[in-house]
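ugh ok so i messed up the first submission bc i forgot one of the chains. this is the corrected input, ALL of the components this time, i swear. 948 residues overall. if the numbers dont match what u have on ur side tell me asap before i send this to the collaborators (the ones from the other lab, u know who)
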Amino acid sequence: MILSEADAQGITNKLLALSKADSCIVTIGGSENRHVRFAQNMATTNGSPSDIEVGVESHFGKKSGSASGTDLSDDALAALVAASENTAKLAPENPEFMPPIGPQKYLTGTAFSSATQSTTSATLAGAILPVLQQAQAKNLQASGFLSIGTSFSSFATSKGLFVYDQETDVLHTVTARTPDGTGAGWAGTTHNDFSKLDVAGMGATAIDKAVRSQNPVRLPPDKYTVILEPSAVSDLLSIMIGEFDQRAADEGRSFATKKGGGSRLGEHVFGKNVTLYSDPNDPLVPGSIYSDDGQPAQRTVWIEGGVLKNLQCERYWAQKSKLAPVPSPTSLTMTGGTTSAADMIKQVKRGLLITRFWYIREVDPQTVLLTGLTRDGVFLIEDGAITKPACNFRFNESPAAMLNKVIAMGPTVRAYGEESIGIPTAVPTLLVDEFTLSSVSDAV
Amino acid sequence: MRNAAAIEAADNLDLAGKLRLADVALDVAKKGGASYADFRLCRYQTEYLEVREHRLEESSSGISAGFSVRVLLDGTWGFASSPLATEDEVRKTALRALGVANASQPLQLRKFVLEDLPTYHDRWDMPMKVDPFVVPTNEKIAHMLAINEAAMKAGADYATISFAFVREEKCFASSTGSRITQTRVRSMPDGDVTVIDKDTGKFSSRATLAAPRGSGYDYILGYDFAAEATKAAQQAREKLKARPVEAGDYDLVLDPTNLWLTIHESVGHPTELDRALGWEANFAGTTFCTPDKLGKLQYGSELMNIIADRSQEGGLSTVGYDDDGVRSVGTEFPIIKDGIFVNYQSAIGQAQLIGQKRSNGCAFADSWESFPIQRMPNVSLQPNPKKCSLHDLFADVKKGIYIVGNGSWSIDQQRHNFQFGGQLFYEIKNGKLGGMLRDVAYQGSTVEFWNSMDGIGDKSTYFLGGAPNCGKGQPEQTAPVSHGAVPARFRQVAVLNTERKDIA
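and heres the new structure output, hopefully the right one now
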């Protein structure tokens, strides 16, 4: 369910008027989605879900409690305020309580596309049909998901803040497999604007990789020079940015903790060619104009020329540590280079090209050591050319270590990996040295 | 305090009112030409409490209510949902579902066909002793503060504990005439303690071994979290100074607090029929366990018996009927029998594709806005019928490791290659349990691993683990699922040391 700014403000005002608390926060969010899902060259679970949620957080002194609901009727809204106030009254005082913020200045959001909002299920099906036909013509099985959505959210406080944002999202992922299960290829990305999405092109990439990846050669586990395509890079960086936390670093439980105490802000933690930032108005990956605690999202540089420049810092910790608060990011961009994937391949004496990763989990937060697997397209590079499809591997590697071993970068592009769910990302293809592949996987 | 007003407001529909809405949806679907349709109206009441060290971090409650309509139109599925439960909105939503099916039909190169579905008129309520939603919130918070107090007193630098509760109420109606209402509750504790060594910059955590359960608050009261927190703080400190493991092959004795997740990943997921049919190829993956292996594959050693059920007390998948309206309670079936792979888990419209008659009741949708897909029942390793204790399993291990609790976990999309960590690792030397080790993870390949199992505990060692958040499907859905396990011994498993010394 999508509420206009006026309707969201109307409900917000009702809730604020009902509040008997010292202060309160009102949030509303909703979405309308349409998707086609397909597997084995046929439609499976197509849908059109719609949802809404309204939340109230009430404060009495330093006591807080919150409640949320899906019912917008007057009775339900009154019950919601009462529920959050009852919860707050039963809470012990929180010494870290921070009063809600007042009016803020926000950027103008750029993540909404009317072309996406008006896209119909029939248009989605029409975009997918040629992909299924191409796959069939090559005796492959195509599976995938094409989803579009419009969402809105608002954040208001009893101190006079009201902010409303509307976004559109597109997600397209497609896998092609050979019927005998010896070859698989994938392509996918997110976007805000459906009219700019190259559905057929991604289908062709997945199909091409499925054909070329058949009967992979089994290689030994080792440290390999690898070309990581954007989806793989997006996964690793998305997980890493979650670890960029000032409090955890100061408390001594982060990769960003300095030996002996404090954080490593200002240190050369990464290679000199690495710059990572968030910008809600980045034309490649526009994000929400406000962060989850209502603070304005703004351009924030996390890593500049290898130096750790910023860590996310909640309001309480910022006040306590006399730092500026750094809200959590709403998008993520890595500055790229100019080396094309083809030129990277030419530079590699022996290495692997990796399409994407799967099932990544943190093994050791001390070093951000992650494990996961390659999937849907690994190719052996020998003497500057792709020579054979290669088996899948398990990796045990840390993005913090990897960002010290980047040899070359491609241009930054919008990217999506299954682990980069939180925020949209734009990253380059990376040529990386000594990437640890610890065992072989028989999966195709 | 129970928020009676909030519950009442969201509960303004009685059963007759819900069924009236169902009739509207099913009528629109029928008139629109659907060969099958169902309607689910659900309400989820939630509470989440989190305490950090000595202070309450979060106390929140929620009610999420809405409905969905699913139609099968000339062999193509269409689905739509809405939070607004009025007759007019139900009619519009049913039309939207028909519209989605209609629009997707050009992609239906093969039509979905459903088996004959049975009709039920029933009500099922999970048996429960103490309803978590009638226990006052401040009482729960006081309990949590006392747990963290114990951890801090025992030397933890940081401690987090959270309690999450869900009451799930579902009303299901289908075009075959079924009308089913069900209620169940989940109690899901979580937490960990962390200790810091400022001089070395090292830190170590130990998470609770308590599992989420399909139980009431009596489960929370019956688990001694404070005693565990005390022990956890000491163990986290001990782990900082523990001997790093030397990589190599070891015999492993896996505690059921570790093994349940290995079962989930390497037995639960590979035996999902939708994966075998290729329907999850783009996301959750396919499986090595293809239909030609049914009844033939020696999945594991003869000691391996895995049962799927939806009736186990405390099970997160325990429920009377699945979200396709297929009766599931009391219909347990073996997945692995004496080491042989004998059954898949299935939802409607799948069994015929491998020559079987009907679904075995394993559909689940995680919300009123989600399409029911095939999800796991409780999938559990059966105890040894012969007497065998945990310590009996250590007896003939020369060089081994005993692993307790879950650490990180990862497995490939066809479920061959896995890597699991743990919370606590102890050396086993010449049949005796020794000192603590650290930085341990084990890697294996599913069939080889399960065939190396040569000892399992008896029923006195049985433990019901589980996860509240198993991911699958697009859009992704998270399912709660339990796994019963006994400790088991595996021979010559690859162990790696996970410390990275090259990262400053």
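quick check: Chain A has a mean pLDDT of 97. that seems consistent at least. The longest helix of chain A spans residues 74-90.
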